[in-house]
From TrEMBL:
PROSITE patterns: CYTC. NCBIfam families: CxxCH_TIGR02603 (TIGR02603). It comes from Gimesia maris. InterPro entries: Cyt_c-like_dom, Cyt_c-like_dom_sf, Haem-bd_dom_put. The keyword Cytoplasm does not apply. This is Dehydrogenase. One of its GO terms (molecular function) is metal ion binding. Keywords: Heme, Iron, Metal-binding. The lineage of its organism: Bacteria, Pseudomonadati, Planctomycetota, Planctomycetia, Planctomycetales.
Length: 239
């Protein structure tokens, strides 16, 4: 198995961004593969800043000192924003949305870049998080609260589960399907993982949403107006 990670990591720089997301999610699912990934990060072959925070958190699930030391070395803190910081951001953006005008066409582009990989709106996107078309999207403040602090209120059926198998595989995501023989976990990358119940060592519901924090941090003030202008649209937007 270690050679699998080695082969993938040798080709990592050739992968497109979407493929890298899948590759990273796969590598952090096993302790030995995580060690190999961190070794490449430690030598500078892969930039630590390019690893999503949710995957860094997933690395720490492996109870391994080598992994813990390297995570601590390259990510001084992986704590999320405080509740006060979130409240301040909600207040600031809410006030901003009451000013200026929005370009819903640009807002749609921003939605496709930042939201569609997990949510469906007007038939576009993937079902990782809740479907948004019927959501009360004219309430900007409520939408803001869910985006800025996604773990404050997790919709039923989208709770995050952590599954550890008897052979050390770690899988996290929401419970997409289950019966007496199997459980199906859908991860943040939109991929389903089917696990036989007899192979499950531990399965625990997590208090944190699969949706990451900080999604609005990289957007400019006009980007925010445009994105929320599109999110509040009552009809599909076509150019």
């Amino acid at each position: 198995e270690p050679q699998i990670a080695g082969t993938i990591l040798k080709r990592y720089s050739d992968f497109s961004e979407p493929v890298r997301e899948v590759v990273l999610s796969t590598l952090v699912s096993r302790k030995e593969w995580t060690r190999q990934l961190l070794a490449d990060i430690d030598t500078g072959q892969i930039a630590a800043a390019t690893i999503p925070e949710d995957l860094v958190r997933k690395m720490t699930i492996h109870l391994d000192q080598q992994i813990a030391d390297l995570v601590s070395k390259h990510w001084k803190t992986i704590k999320g924003a405080s509740n006060q910081q979130m409240q301040d951001q909600i207040a600031r953006v809410s006030k901003l949305l009451g000013t200026g005008s929005s370009d819903v066409y640009h807002g749609k582009e921003l939605y496709q870049q930042n939201c569609a990989k997990c949510h469906i709106l007007f038939g576009e996107g993937k079902r990782v998080g809740p479907e948004l078309t019927q959501y009360k999207r004219d309430d900007s403040l409520r939408m803001l609260m869910h985006i800025v602090n996604p773990s404050a209120e997790i919709r039923e059926g989208y709770e995050t589960y952590l599954v550890i198998t008897v052979d050390g595989l770690v899988v996290s995501g929401f419970l997409f399907d289950q019966d007496q023989q199997i459980v199906v976990i859908r991860g943040a990358d939109g991929q389903n993982v089917t696990i036989k119940r007899e192979n499950i060592d531990e399965m625990v519901k997590q208090p944190k949403s699969l949706m990451p924090e900080g999604l609005l941090d990289k957007l400019s003030e006009q980007d925010l107006r445009d994105l929320f202008g599109f999110l509040r649209s009552s009809q599909p937007v076509f150019k």
